[in-house]
Amino acid sequence: MSKINFRSQILPHLVAIVVFLTISVVFYSPIFFENKVPQQGDVLHGFGAGQEINEYRKVTGEEALWTNSMFGGMPAYLISVLYPGEDVVQVLHNIYALWLPRTPSIVFKAMVGFYILLLVFGVRPYLAIAGAIAYGLGTFNLISLEAGHIWKVDAIAYMPLVLAGIHLGLKGNKIWGFTLTALGLAFELDANHLQITYYLMLVVLCYGIAMLVHAIRNKQLKNIFHQCGSRGGSSPAGRRHHRRKAMGCLPVR
């Protein structure tokens, strides 16, 4: 068993986590040090959209599957439905986000996820830190968070994790590939934003086509189909969670 080199194998990742955590805390310092709460319009609208569902839950103790408070009526799973069995995913989510408040945690998770993706693609750790910061502090993310589109940016934050798992699997690292793909998909579906998950599907499709062309050119078609077969197990893992929590677009559970 090879000895772990702390300076080259552990320290860069610890530095990355500290940097991401520091940026998240400093950028949203009023939340941490002044006990302030961001006024996010879409979140407030979401609370209003889910009011009828919440009242039904309080009165009956059951989950409403339909609400009349939006448009001419719509399925409640697009707004706020609580499902049994979500505790495991929530525990993993809290660990991944280091128990940060909601808005800062999304920026932190975006940076961590993109850092992992760049490492998987062979980028040097300290350069990967810079790329992760650029991804987490992207203008679109910050503007969307200010508007209250927290579930949309949450889903964006998990996209790199899914891609990293798929790439690892196709490169032959079955255990970590399966783990990252399954974890990323569970988080992605839990974010409950159909639009971003659809975009993720398109990105994965384009990536798959590129990998297929590469395999054909290098006469490795048999290997890539074998690796794709091993990745198939992670999709049912994500779908099992999805059956408990359907995807939606509004920011209220």
Describe this structure in words.
A two-stranded antiparallel sheet has the order 1-2. The radius of gyration is 20 Å and the shape is globular. The longest helix is centred in the last third of the chain and has 24 residues, at 194-217. It contains 13 helices and two strands, in the order H-H-H-H-E-E-H-H-H-H-H-H-H-H-H. The chain has one domain (6-37, 83-244). Strand 1 and strand 2 form a beta hairpin. By secondary structure, it is an all-alpha fold. Helix 6 (102-120) packs antiparallel against helix 7, helix 8 (139-147) packs across helix 9 (150-170) and helix 9 runs parallel beside helix 11.
**Domains, number:** 1
Unreliable parts: 242-253
Range of helix content:
over 70%
C-alpha geometry: globular
What's the number of helices? Answer: 13
**Mean pLDDT, rounded to whole units?**
85
Give me the count of strands: 2
SSE diagram, text form:
Elements: H1 6-27, H2 29-33, H3 41-49, H4 51-60, E1 66-67, E2 74-75, H5 87-96, H6 102-120, H7 125-136, H8 139-147, H9 150-170, H10 174-191, H11 194-217, H12 221-231, H13 234-244
